[in-house]
Amino acid sequence: MPAAAWMTLSVGAVIILIAAVALIRVIYHLNYVRGTLGTVLVGALVIAHQTRTVPEALTSVNANLKPVRDFCETV
């Protein structure tokens, strides 16, 4: 095989190796971003849960304050 063929094969192998390493790094970074996005999603769900609307607890609060309201009406 001529030297030019060996040189072409070696340069092609180096280019393929560099592309493979770059793709592996991209896969690593995408996995890291996926984990971070999962954390952000869980945080957003926690915030949504903690800032839910009042009517869920409002009925029980109103029921517990009925004796106070009745007493205030007699005064």
If you had to describe this structure to a student in words, what would you say it looks like?
The protein has 75 residues and is an all-alpha fold. The chain has a domain of 40 residues. It is built from 2 helices and no strands. The N and C termini lie far apart (110 Å). The model has no long low-confidence stretch (mean pLDDT 90).
Topology, element by element:
Layout: H1 3-50, H2 55-74
Radius of gyration: 33 Å
Our estimate of the beta-strand percent is under 5%
Largest sheet geometry: none
Q: How many helical elements?
A: 2
Structural class: mainly alpha
Number of strands: 0
Distance between the termini: 110 Å
Low-confidence stretches: none
Overall helicity: over 70%
Brief write-up:
This protein is mostly helical. The chain has helices at residues 3-50, 55-74. It is rod-shaped.
State the main characteristics.
75 residues; 0% strand; single chain; mainly alpha; 2 helices
